[in-house]
Design goal:
Blueprint lengths: L9 H29 L6 H5 L1 H17 L4 H27 L4
Helix pairs in contact: 1-4, 3-4
Length: about 100
């Protein structure tokens, strides 16, 4: 991947952005694979929701955003959205696993 400063035209910049976005989405996909796995270690709705863990995650992502020169409010919003979606999916998985016959 080239440096932003080495791009010679708008097309090169856009190609680089597209490549980065695809890599980000691959990482989100990989992250989601772990989200689906973690349900194996959770026993009830409270352990899925894990409010204290959610707060811990948000605090850390805000720190990382500041460290990387990004807007912490934006990344807090992004991670809250991601976590709400993941909690919904985890609850569905938990429900489906607990209703399966033994």
């Amino acid at each position: 991947m080239k440096n932003p400063e080495s791009c010679k035209n708008i097309e090169e910049v856009r190609e680089a952005i597209d490549e980065i976005d695809y890599q980000i989405m691959k990482l989100f996909s990989q992250r989601y694979d772990f989200v689906k796995e973690i349900v194996k270690f959770k026993t009830d709705e409270a352990s899925v929701i894990a409010e204290s863990r959610q707060k811990e995650v948000i605090e850390k992502r805000r720190e990382w955003a500041v460290e990387l020169g990004l807007n912490p409010d934006l990344f807090e919003d992004i991670f809250w959205t991601l976590m709400r979606y993941n909690v919904t999916k985890e609850l569905e998985i938990l429900k489906n696993t607990s209703t399966k016959p033994v």
